[in-house]
Design brief:
With 445 residues, the chain is mainly β. The chain has helices at residues 2-9, 124-128, 216-219, 223-227, 230-233; strands at 36-42, 53-58, 69-74, 81-86, 92-97, 103-107, 116-121, 131-140, 143-151, 160-165, 170-175, 186-187, 199-202, 207-210, 239-244, 249-255, 264-265, 273-278, 283-289, 295-302, 312-317, 323-328, 333-338, 346-352, 360-362, 368-372, 391-397, 402-409, 417-424.
């Protein structure tokens, strides 16, 4: 562990080091079984204390509390809890609210089983120069890069990247390139919308990749009302941007029509490509570098039947770059694609997980896959015909099929609506589990 931390301090990229396969390459990875999953959860009126909270689930089968919620830390109010991310040293977990733009920094190192609220950033909008809706919190060496979804002028989709120190001090704002303000970027197609959503870094290529979604006006609107409004439906992003990682400057704008969401990049030393999916058109797109070091974007596969609006949301790429999990929210289904040829993905299986489905996280060894259900407070389904609606689920994966292991009903436990998941482990901090550990046969270890 000491060696790992030294490498991080020296800013040496460690490709493949993360707690699950889609995190920052600057982070140390969990080797073997994770102990906890931290679930960033939306507070809901009429459920429990109605506040956003960080919920800790014990997921180590050798623990007495396996499959149970062992801690719940409320943060006050409802902020549209959405995404979260660790600092590079993994001592702190940043979690933000898309509505209030508040950022909550949790200490997960002092006691990994019971995170503590370390700091709250209340002035994100003013410090950043008007950015609204912090979304992705992405670890860089000693810093956090946050993507915004909106702005405080018109609450539309034009936004920026915002850079902080690990300690929560503001550094700089980097505006997304848009028409009339390309900021040095080359416009390769029709669009330069200035929208933002997700972020991934490719250290060995000196590249950052960002995607685009929609602004506060849309994501805080009732889903049915938004879909019935032609004006609202026209306000979605259509771009992926290639950035210079070190200079923090945009280099090239790629057309990816239909609201490209999560960016997931390959881990192989010679695999210079990433995937994204389009929420509005249900497509998989490949973002790739050619032999001349030019970056391109092209559609490579369809996801289900677009006419039925499956609405692809989260995706996860396997550690060997051969598989891609794709969640579709509206039909509650996960699809698995063979991406061994990234230019021609093939669906090899699908499974219904619940009434709706959002986030997917897989362990680094590929043996466990986790799912949560909530998308946005005003978009989530409010009635269920007997099926699972708001849940945390764990499945084992043997390389071919998913086998259900446990479910936690977040509504029944009055916790709220579960969204982003992040993994935790005692071993990351040189700690031993301070709880009685038993074998699955019941004998004490």
């Amino acid at each position: 562990m000491k060696k790992v931390l030294i490498m991080i301090a020296l800013c040496v990229p460690m490709v493949g080091y993360s707690d699950e396969t889609c995190m920052s390459p600057y982070m140390a990875k969990i080797v073997g079984q994770e102990d906890f999953v931290y679930v960033w959860t939306l507070g809901v009126e009429g459920l429990g204390d109605e506040q956003d909270k960080l919920v800790t689930v014990d997921v180590n089968p050798m623990h007495e509390a396996y499959g149970e919620v062992i801690n719940s830390l409320s943060v006050g109010g409802r902020n549209e809890a959405h995404h979260s991310g660790f600092t590079d040293d993994r001592r702190y977990l940043w979690a933000s609210g898309l509505d209030t733009s508040r950022i909550f920094i949790f200490d997960v190192a002092t006691d990994p089983a019971k995170p503590r609220l370390h700091k709250v950033i209340e002035n994100f909008v003013s410090k950043s120069g008007g950015v609204v809706g912090p979304h992705t919190s992405y670890a860089l060496p000693g810093r956090m890069m946050l993507t915004g979804l909106s702005n405080n002028k018109d609450h539309g989709g034009k936004t920026a990247l915002v850079e902080y120190t690990n300690g929560g001090d503001y550094i700089a704002t980097h505006w997304m390139p848009s028409e009339g303000a390309l900021n040095g970027a080359v416009k390769s197609g029709k669009y330069a919308d200035g929208y933002g959503y997700d972020l991934r870094a490719f250290p060995r290529r000196n590249v950052m990749v960002t995607s685009s979604f929609t602004g506060w006006n849309n994501y805080m609107m009732n889903l049915g009302a938004m879909m019935a409004s032609p004006e609202a439906m026209a306000q979605f992003g259509n771009t992926v941007v290639i950035w210079d990682l070190h200079a923090r400057t945009p280099k090239k704008i790629l057309d990816v029509p239909g609201a490209p969401l999560e960016i997931r990049c390959a881990w192989g030393a010679k695999n210079n490509y990433c995937f994204t999916t389009t929420a509005l058109t249900s497509e998989i797109w490949l973002i790739y570098e050619d032999d001349k070091t030019e970056w391109h974007a092209k559609k490579v596969a369809d996801i289900g039947d677009a006419s039925k609006i499956p609405l692809p949301v989260d995706i996860s790429i396997s550690a060997d770059d051969n598989l891609l999990w794709v969640d579709t929210w509206n039909d509650g289904t996960v699809r698995l694609f063979d991406i061994s040829n990234p230019h021609a993905p093939e669906q090899i299986s699908e499974k219904k997980i619940g009434e709706q489905l959002n986030m997917v996280s897989q362990s680094w060894d590929g043996k466990r896959v986790y799912f949560t259900s909530s998308l946005l407070a005003n978009w989530d389904k409010v009635e269920s015909s007997g099926a699972d609606l708001q849940y945390f689920k764990l499945y084992d994966f043997d390389g071919e099929k998913l086998t259900h292991k446990l479910t936690i009903d977040f509504v029944a436990q009055k916790l709220g609506y579960p969204h982003q998941m992040r993994f935790g482990a005692y071993s990351l901090y040189g700690l031993s589990a301070p709880v009685r550990i038993t074998s699955r046969a019941g004998a004490s270890d």
